[in-house]
Amino acid sequence: MRRLLGWIGGAAGGITAYRLLRRRPSPDPVAAEPHTRAEELRAKLAESRAAEPAVQEPAVQEPAAQEPAAEPEPVEEPESPEDRRRRVHEEGRATLDEMKSE
Asked: Which helix or strand (DSSP H or E) is residue 59 part of?
């Protein structure tokens, strides 16, 4: 009797799954016009780009008294992948040790 109920339940589940997967979504009127809306936005973008005046940088005036130029801050060299990997592993181990001690 249990086998029969198992077969019936499996068949019903299979049929239900098949129907859910085969169900096709109804056509959405908003989704039917994506190309039209995209073309409108592209045209609007092209108009706004054409309407922008050419941006000119203002002329830089040199001050009468020369101020000493500030020294640029030293740029840190990006750490190598090995150094970064080592640092990340050390942080992870420290965090793990901290969690274990609790």
From this structure: none
> CA–CA separation, 2 vs 4, rounded Å?
5
> What per-residue confidence (pLDDT) applies to 82?
92
For residues 79 and 87, the answer to whether their CB atoms sit within 8 Å is yes
DSSP type of residue 68: P
Looking at residues 62-66, what average pLDDT do you find? 57
Q: Would you say how long the chain is, in residues?
A: 102
Q: What is the pTM of this model?
A: 0.27
101, 99, 79: which is closest to 88 by C-alpha?
A: 79
